[in-house]
Design goal:
Length: 61
């Protein structure tokens, strides 16, 4: 295969686009995970865990 200057420039541009895409999507994925964790913690606060002592009392009565 004969590599001229245009071929090398094309490969370099493709590599930059490839790594730029993965860098951008990685940042977006991190932001999504952080927001999802925040929303999940808010949802857990809306529905607290039952107290085991109270649960035992209600089951025994």
């Amino acid at each position: 295969m004969n590599f001229d200057r245009n071929t090398v420039i094309g490969f370099v541009v493709l590599a930059v686009l490839f790594f730029g895409y993965f860098f951008y999507t990685s940042k977006e994925q991190q932001a999504y995970q952080k927001e999802k964790a925040r929303l999940d913690s808010i949802e857990l606060l809306k529905h607290p865990k039952p107290n085991p002592a109270q649960l035992a009392k209600t089951l025994l009565v």
